[in-house]
């Protein structure tokens, strides 16, 4: 329903044409491959892979397609990860409809479109986690034990313990569950 509403909202604009709609990261990537749109509008959470992973894949494989993320996640960590993945814009869904159309135009023109309140917050606190610590914590937050994490990432159990200990220390957490909670609340997972 939201996907259809967003498409209808953008199609009202005379200078914006919607060339496809997708409910999953995989299908969005397929549409980009075929249609080569100027701007891809995506959410962060969706089936398949995340909008952040989609932004990385699209900007790597199709650099002429610019990515704009529209989401409910108003966490600075998500914004920073999205920008690091190559996104050109990051807006919150509770914004005004004309802000979305203007953001699409800005991103199309090679500019950035970022919710101002998030932009200020994003530069105030840096994500202390390495990518590997993030991967280990993400799996731990999903309930995987040390041996399952090791097998999934091709690491030894001792290395997994080291990554978990480092992440716990960096976040000032009590344990791995607390570390995953803190990282998730900040948008770092």
Strand order across the biggest sheet? 1-2-3-4
Q: CATH H-level name of the largest domain... which superfamily?
A: Response regulator
Helix and strand element order: HHEHEHEHEHHHHH
Radius of gyration, rounded? 18 Å
Shape: elongated
Mean pLDDT: 89
What structural class results from the helix and strand content? alpha/beta
User: In the CATH hierarchy, what is the class of the largest domain?
Assistant: Alpha Beta
- Head-to-tail CA distance between termini: 27 Å
CATH topology category name of the largest domain: Rossmann fold
Largest sheet: 4 strands, parallel
Number of helices: 10
- Unreliable runs: none
* Count of individual domains: 2
Short overview:
This protein is of the alpha/beta class and 189 residues long. The protein has helices at residues 2-11, 25-35, 51-61, 76-84, 97-108, 116-122, 131-141, 146-153, 157-171, 176-186; strands at 39-42, 66-71, 89-92, 113-114.
Which key terms come to mind for this protein?
189 residues, alpha/beta, Rossmann fold, four-stranded parallel sheet
Could you characterize what this model shows?
By secondary structure, the chain is of the alpha/beta class. The chain folds into two domains: 2-122, Response regulator (Rossmann fold, 3-Layer(aba) Sandwich); 131-186, Winged helix-like DNA-binding domain superfamily/Winged helix DNA-binding domain (Arc Repressor Mutant, subunit A). The chain has helices at residues 2-11, 25-35, 51-61, 76-84, 97-108, 116-122, 131-141, 146-153, 157-171, 176-186, and strands spanning 39-42, 66-71, 89-92, 113-114. Strands 1-2-3-4 form a four-stranded parallel β-sheet. The longest helix is centred in the C-terminal third of the chain and has 15 residues, at 157-171. The two termini are 27 Å apart. The model has no long low-confidence stretch (mean pLDDT 89).
């Amino acid at each position: 329903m939201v996907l259809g509403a967003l498409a209808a909202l953008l199609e009202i604009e005379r200078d914006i044409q919607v060339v496809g709609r997708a409910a999953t990261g995989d299908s969005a990537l397929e549409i980009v491959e075929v249609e080569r749109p100027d701007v891809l509008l995506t959410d962060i959470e969706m089936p398949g892979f995340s909008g952040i992973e989609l932004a990385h894949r699209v900007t790597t494989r199709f650099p002429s397609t610019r990515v704009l993320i529209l989401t409910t996640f108003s966490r600075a960590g998500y914004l920073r990860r999205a920008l690091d993945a190559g996104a050109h814009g990051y807006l919150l869904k509770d914004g005004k409809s004309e802000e979305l159309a203007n953001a699409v135009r800005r991103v199309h023109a090679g500019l950035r479109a970022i919710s101002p309140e998030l932009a200020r917050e994003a530069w105030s606190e840096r994500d202390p986690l390495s990518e590997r610590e993030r991967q280990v914590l993400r799996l731990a937050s999903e309930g995987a034990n040390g041996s399952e994490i090791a097998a999934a990432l091709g690491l030894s159990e001792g290395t997994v313990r080291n990554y978990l200990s480092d992440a716990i220390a960096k976040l000032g957490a009590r344990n791995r569950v607390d570390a995953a909670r803190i990282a998730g609340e900040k948008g770092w997972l």
